[in-house]
Amino acid sequence: GNANLLFRSLSARYLAVCAVLPHFNKSCVSGTFSCPQDMSSASPRLSWKKSSHNYSKLRPDDGMTINASDDITPLLDPLSSVNSDFTPPQKRFLYPFPPRFERWLQPFDDFVCQIVQSYCAEGRLGKFFYVWDVFMTGIVSIEGGMVAPFVFFVLGWDDLAIELSYMMLLLCLFSQVPKRFLWRFRPYMAGRAIKVRVKETATTSSFPSRAVTCAAVYSFYISIAVCYNSHENRIVLQWWVPVFIIGAVILSSLARIDLGVHYASDCLIGLFQGILICIVGMLLRQLDSLHCESCGNGDCYAHVGSGTAITGGDFGRVNFVVFAVALVISIILVLIAGSKPLDFWGKCDSVFGALFPGIVFQMVFLCPRTAGSSLESPPEAPWYAYIYGIGIAAIAMGIGFKTSGKIPMLPFLLVFSILFSALVIWRVLVF
To answer: Max CA-CA distance within the chain?
Structure first.
């Protein structure tokens, strides 16, 4: 049928390419990172109107003739136009994205990119879409999600904060593993999309789209937060939840594709990755409640006036052994993630410095089975609690990124100390 016809068409074109380009260097499709010098000089700032990538050649019903003057190397090698200015980071255990998959995904990826950028980046509303793309990218950044558990703990939404802490920990690990060990050139690097931003900050591997993964996870937990705050049943799926999640994923995908920093296939894998993180995160939260009690039904809190309640006047009930063990484990994990040759993530110090304070806070102050004591149930948060939580988180993250890359472990220690101290002071002495 159509599949057989398409296969015969592509086979015939491959033979035609080999005939008209006997000098073609196949090192570009051999799985290595290097490309012939004459194929790597194309500028990444391409225009679809001027691009030589004629993807109609892939249609099985347009004949099988091909001219020797046609630029058909992109049909065989999606990396033939990689700009020589872009090179993968020099890290061990970093492998190229399989060229076979790249060629198989190319018709779909390039078609979607062409449609999106032709209507957005090159349309009359190009400036509007550019601002919108940058706005969406900022909303779904992973840095914002890292401090969300801290803010929720400040507000007294302990059950939601604990669940989100485990979710964000999984998000860090699951999303970074493919980016660390599998390199895929971003569309603007490979000359397959317009480079919209002059100073593009997305220089890591394109696969998968962490922004789309964050969009799926964030929208899922925003939905839970709304149900949590309105005291609705969190088990029952409200009709608007899937609509909200799908909308967030589509908007973030369009933004990343329009900026030329992700392929459509990156976004699809990012969506599946986000769904997996949500499922595994909820399961981990259920396991955690077996040894730390659940804050959803109030079991994690000490009764008012009991001998196990941690208050400002009875701070000696804090289990400092649990705190010391949790802190040491956190430091060891950050050291392993940032050490050679693993070099897992350049943002480890700041990101984990924002995430681990909430996890350590739970183990010390909201886990009576382990620590032997816990906080009393928090009252309703006042309006200034939002300002306090968001303000402290912004200051800590700013300090973390300002000191990043200067002294190892310094950003982690600074961010962790600021957030954990602010959280303890607020929950024990103020709130």
So the answer is: 87
- Describe the crossing of helices 383-403 and 410-424 by its angle, rounded to 10 degrees: 170
- Cβ contact 334:409 at 8 Å: yes
Query: Mean pLDDT, to the nearest integer, of 29-49?
Result: 34
Q: Is the dihedral of CA 305, 306, 309, 313 positive or negative?
A: positive
Mean pLDDT over 3-29 rounds to 39
Reduced to 3 states (helix: H, G, I; strand: E, B; else coil), residue 95 is strand
Whole-model pTM: value is 0.77
DSSP for residue 165? H
Q: Report the distance separating Cα 112 and Cα 260, nearest Å.
A: 11
The length of the chain is: 431
CA 151/CA 357 separation, integer angstroms: 11
Which neighbouring-strand residues pair with 310? 375
Q: CA torsion, points 163, 167, 172, 173, in degrees to nearest 10?
A: 110
Both tokens assigned to 223? 């939905």
Please tell me the distance from the alpha carbon of residue 263 to that of residue 242, in angstroms, as a whole number.
23
d(CA 162, CA 187): 37
Helix, strand or coil, per DSSP, at residue 310? strand
Indicate the residue type of 320.
F
Per-residue b or e along 245-264, where b marks 16 or more CB atoms closer than 10 Å to that residue's CB: beebbebbbbbbbbbbbbbb
The three-state secondary structure class of 183 is strand
Closest Cα to residue 98, out of 182, 12, 157? 182
CB 200 within 8 A of CB 45: no
DSSP symbol at 232: -
**Token output for 106:** 């190319």
**pLDDT in the model for residue 124:** 65
- SS3 breakdown of the chain: % helix, strand, coil, rounded to 5? 60, 0, 35
The tens digit of pLDDT for each residue in 176-221 reads 999 989 999 999 888 888 888 777 666 789 999 999 999 999 999 8
DSSP string, 390-417: HHHHHHHHHHHHHHTTTSTTHHHHHHHH
Q: What is the DSSP string of 353-382?
A: HHHHHHHHHHHHHS-HHHHS-EEBPP-PPP
Q: Assess contact for 107 and 357: CB atoms under 8 A.
A: no
